[in-house]
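User: structure tokens for Exodeoxyribonuclease 7 small subunit, please.
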Amino acid sequence: MAKKKVSFEEAMTRLEEIVERMETEELLLEDAVKLYQEGLSLSAVCREKLAAAEGTVTMLRKEAGLWEETPFEEEE
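Assistant: Done. Predicted tokens:
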């Protein structure tokens, strides 16, 4: 079965739901592991979409004549 493609926003919303559930509910180990696995998968989707967006922004900056590439700063 093919997985439905989710948007960045959908993935983030679901990740927030998973985190809240894991922080506030007492879960069976099996359920916690399933949620963790789903969270990892959604996190990978978000990373891919962010990398694609960063590449697009870089390309647009080059096309606009803004040749200086400045890497995005990571938050601490």
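User: Anything notable?

Assistant: Residues 29-63 form the longest helix (35 residues).
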